[in-house]
Structure prediction request, 106 residues.
Amino acid sequence: PIATQYLGSVIGAITVIIVYILYTRYPGFPLNPAGVAMGWGMIPESLFIPAIVAYIVKRIIIRIGGARLYEERAVPFAIGLIAALSIAIILNNLSEAVSIMTMLGG
Prediction:
């Protein structure tokens, strides 16, 4: 490993330690140290803004309706959206595969 890799590891470790201290000291601190460690540099830029929007919406829902609204309404709604999107992607891929096979005469 080169020096910049060591430097990156040290910066990452210090960041996780700071987040851990904040997480244990302040119960409402929004970042989990394990999430910071796993997500450090691994989240594509295309997911950064949607993740922030989802976090803000979550905080608003919890503030307005409490944990009960979040657990009973928002989470099932989000799971339904993800399931519907997954099914749509699978059906689209199957449709494209069938159309390619028919074009190739297979």
Notes: The chain has a mean pLDDT of 88. The chain is about 85% helix and 0% strand. Residues 43 and 51 are 10 Å apart (CA to CA). The radius of gyration is 21 Å.
